Amino acid sequence: MVHRLSLIQGFHVHATDGHIGHVDDFLLDESSWQIRYLVVDTSNWLGGKWVAVAPTSVKRIDWSNREVHMALTRAEIRDSPNMEEAQVPSYELVPRFVIM
Q: Is 72 exposed, middle or buried (CB count within 10 Å of its CB: 0-12, 13-18, 19+)?
């Protein structure tokens, strides 16, 4: 089955030991157009940040409850690479507009 990625944005992320954040975005490989990472926003947790998690870590997607269940613990997700470590170009990290 095929789904639009935008449908998954905002879904709650559940690690093997509980809730950790939500899906904020996706990072694609420019040459193959494959999803390289899910960007998970863990800012609801103390010291939270945006981290890049491999899509192979997804166990299942619960469409009715808007949840992504991962095969990783909360600590493993928290310790995942941030956007700089995932080698995201700086122009991708800057907002699309500037408010002056």
A: buried
